TrEMBL record:
Protein name (Swiss-Prot/TrEMBL): Phytoene/squalene synthase family protein
Alphabetized Pfam families for the sequence: SQS_PSY
PANTHER family assigned: BIFUNCTIONAL LYCOPENE CYCLASE/PHYTOENE SYNTHASE
Coiled-coil region(s): none
Amino acid sequence: MTLFDHTTLECSKLITQRYSTSFTLGIKTLHPRFHDPIYAIYGFVRFADEIVDTFHTHDRASLLERFKQETYQALEEKISLNPVLHAFQMVVNQYHIDREFINAFLHSMEMDLFDQKYNCDLYEEYIYGSAEVVGLMCLRVFCEGDNPMFDRLKAAACSLGAAFQKVNFLRDIRSDYQDRGRVYFPKVDFRSFCNKDKEEIERDIQQDFDNAYAGIVALPKGAKLGVYLAYIYYLKLFKKIKQLPAAQILAERVRVPDNTKLALLLSSYIRYQFKTI
């Protein structure tokens, strides 16, 4: 059984490495005891996201429903022949990750099956389920059963997840609209998206980043550098987006080059060593 457990965790690690260089870098800077649990969480959320965002030639609703039922079955039986779900259930059961977080996440994935305009309530509901609860799952791992710490850092973890998701929405506004028929931001019409719309969204994102930072500096030592690196990477991406006019955001996908990511890793490590974060 140990070999099976280890193999399924390796599958989640491979998924993370293939899909996200930034999160892989961030995870590598966590204490080694956190590596496998965070890979497992990423593998789970990535596969669910792939179902609704990528598999357009298949019955996505049916695939997601099957994934959802297999998730709950894995959690109850504490085993799955799906390596991603087996790795995830181990982490959920070991760290007592709240079932409500998983329910909210899967609900947001279901929301992505439908082309809909997001009002403020739906937007907040989607952000919570697609991003904030992922931060809360990771926080459960980092706190290692310290519930008072979890309660203190919960709001900041939600803000960090929200900031990441909203930056993704802003960066991907063109592809979300053209490929999937979605515009997540309330009251925003893609066809008339302008600098004023962009600046209003950016003010909201900046507030999330500001709220998140206080939580990052209060994280346990083994988690702080990795989370800070993800934070600083997304902040760099956000600053690049802020410098561009709305028309350019609609025309191209902004990214942070790999050499810049490595430079951010080095500068973050130096700040961490000198205890300035």
